[in-house]
Amino acid sequence: MVLQELQQFFVRHKKVSLAELQLHFRIDADALRGMLGRLIRKGRIRKMEDSKTCGGCHSCADEAIEFYEWVNIKK
Q: What is the third-level CATH fold of 2-70?
């Protein structure tokens, strides 16, 4: 998978969980985090910091509540 495909997915969906990305691209969470890190450094997406603070039941997988969001780049 190319970073451009991942970026295009964000352009279409705006806000995506890591679990959704795993299902769509069929890639391991750690491998995706590496690619997401590159897009974060480029300023294309951001990790949503408040995603880890849900109701507190602790029954969800980390990937299900780890969200990333497209950053609208204005030129």
A: Arc Repressor Mutant, subunit A (1.10.10)
